[in-house]
Write the structure tokens for this entry.
Amino acid sequence: MTETTNKTETAAPFSTLLGARPVLHEKLNTRFAELVTDVVATGKKGTLTLTLTVAPFEGDTDTLVVSDQVRSKRPEIEAKPSILFPTPNGGLTKSDPTQPEFELLGLDKKEN
């Protein structure tokens, strides 16, 4: 069992890790922006989780390996249903094929 010693030195700020890992920083920025956009669009909550794993490098505690995993649980955007009409050949169309189409005529503008 190892003892934890009290050190008077202050640990480096967490932002130092992000500066050393620009890909992680960019991934967090992108995922956070997507999450905020989806929360605003849906009015539902979402989460962004960063998991950092710190392990000794090949058993040497003087060298550490830091790996990351970023997960987001974005709120689901509910798609609105569409009303479509079947065509004789098995397709779908927005226009009801049983309704006649009317030719619309433009109105001439009168000059005053």
